[in-house]
Amino acid sequence: MTETQLRTWTHGIGYGLATAFIFMLALQNLRYGFYDLFYLAATLSALTLIGLAYTILCRRSQLSAKGHLLILIGLNSGLLTALLTLDTPGIIHWAMPLLVLNLLILPLRQGVALSLLLVLPASAILLFEAPLLEAITRIAGLFILLTAAALYIWHYDHMAQSAEDLAITDPVTGAHNARFLDESLQKEISRAIATGHPLSVINLSIDYVDGLADLHGKNSLQTLYQNMTEHLFTVIRAGDTLYTLNDTEFFLILPFTPEEGVRVIAERIRRTIAEHQWPSIGRATVSIGATTRGNGDTRTDALRKRAHQAMLDARKRGADSVWFSAGETVTA
Ligand SMILES: Nc1nc2c(ncn2[C@@H]2O[C@H](COP(=O)(O)OP(=O)(O)OP(=O)(O)O)[C@@H](O)[C@H]2O)c(=O)[nH]1
């Protein structure tokens, strides 16, 4: 299930349950002849029903649907007005489903702010109108509910962020992982097509990995890979992105970089790696394949394959070398 679908379901169920709850209150008050409270509950349940309809209408853009804020401001201010104008402090418990809705539907800060705008004046009214002990008990209940719901939402947001980070970041090296590469490269290709700026990529592979693993062990190779990632981060400029493909290969996306530029940076990477003293194994070299997008390159696999082939060509010419392969050019 995508995040948008998850939000649509939770918002829909939230509004649905709130509508059912408030509608029951409306019916009960109608039965006992409390017409003011009946009209209030009927208005609030109509608003939650609008929220449900809005959720269904905006189901494809639920993450950016701004109308929820207006609907919830309407609900919260409706209840606050009733607390101020009707002499029935008992309806403070109607705030409970509203607090949950605020936090369930709005971004955390907005949800907490709107809830406090309801709870603080409501508490003052309650302290003024109800017996002290009763007022304190009800206010405490509201704050406990608000805190628990806010902590739960904060925890969920935090977990979702960690899951997203894990999905796109290699846990060992901190670079982006291969799954994220195609998505980013496609975006950069579209951007390069739209703006006409050059785009280059680099495929980089550590030389003689089997020999290094035999000689120094797999753990040393893993450490070398991490050290090389850190090193590459210090060589590339902001805006370039680094991806780890497997335990021995890297990929770099270099926006705004023409052929002359990618030749410079590829050679710089090769030289600095060869000159470096690596803590786990001493000396190491890399073979680098580089390519620049031609006007016929519109897909990621073409660029990835060409960079990979260029890296194999570099290796064929002897380790510790760079090979550049020109982009596909189509004449109109
Ligand atoms: N994407 C990318 N390109 C680089 C990088 N370093 C050098 N280049 C390319 O190589 C060209 C020449 O770079 P340098 O020899 O460092 O000269 P420079 O004039 O100091 O480079 P800039 O001020 O970064 O443009 C640059 O214009 C870039 O196109 C890098 O880290 N990333």
Automatic annotation (TrEMBL):
Record's keyword annotation contains Methyltransferase: no
Chemical reaction(s) catalysed: 2 GTP = 3',3'-c-di-GMP + 2 diphosphate
Entries under SUPFAM superfamilies matching the protein: Nucleotide cyclase
Membrane-spanning segments: 12-31, 37-57, 69-96, 108-128, 135-154
Domain GGDEF: 197-327
Keywords of this entry: Membrane, Transmembrane, Transmembrane helix
E.C. designation(s): 2.7.7.65
This protein's record includes keyword Transmembrane helix: yes
UniProt xrefs under NCBIfam families: GGDEF
Protein name: diguanylate cyclase
Native organism: Marinobacter salinisoli
Lineage: Bacteria, Pseudomonadati, Pseudomonadota, Gammaproteobacteria, Pseudomonadales
